[in-house]
Specification:
It contains seven helices and four strands, in the order αβααααββαβα. It has helices spanning about 1-15, 25-40, 50-60, 60-70, 75-85, 105, 115-145; strands at about 20-25, 90-95, 100-105, 110. The strands form two sheets. The chain has a two-stranded antiparallel sheet with strand order 1-4. A two-stranded antiparallel ribbon has the order 2-3. The model has no long low-confidence stretch (mean pLDDT about 90).
């Protein structure tokens, strides 16, 4: 209970310092995924679109996990969510109890923007670090051959 109270207090502090919220339930991640995938297909050619497509696919992990934990069909539900987001319904996410698409504004599920931004920044920094380490390791392996 102490940990839950501390987490709630930290969320309240974050909202006071940065009073911006975004829809929860994987809606933000799905909106980013759809936008990145559309940009990769429409305005970028060749190999340059691969990072956009890769990040778009990685952003779908949160909604997919919520769907699976709720007992839903991941492929069908992700397809429905993509269609809703492509139609401009960017507040639709996953009902965590049923694993079905739902409008997060009507459910009242919101997340602090500061937390969401930090999560995405940390994920991208971690991926970049892994790529740099991989380049170093593959470079030393070639020198030793």
């Amino acid at each position: 209970i102490d940990r839950n109270l501390q987490d709630a207090m930290c969320v309240a502090r974050n909202v006071l310092f940065s009073p911006f919220l975004c829809p929860g339930g994987g809606a933000t991640e799905m909106a980013l995924s759809v936008q990145l995938a559309q940009r990769a297909k429409s305005s970028i050619d060749g190999v340059e679109q691969w990072p956009y497509a890769g990040v778009a696919e990685a952003m779908e992990v949160i909604p997919r996990t919520l769907i699976q934990n709720g007992g839903g069909n991941a492929i069908r539900t992700l397809t429905e969510l993509r269609a809703k987001h492509a139609a401009g319904l960017s507040t639709w996410g996953v009902d965590g109890e049923k694993g079905v698409p739902a409008d997060m504004t009507s459910y009242g599920v919101w997340e602090p923007l500061a937390v969401k931004l930090q999560t995405i920044k940390t994920a991208i920094d971690s991926a970049s670090l892994l790529l740099r380490v991989d380049d170093i390791v593959s470079g030393t392996a070639r020198k030793s051959e």
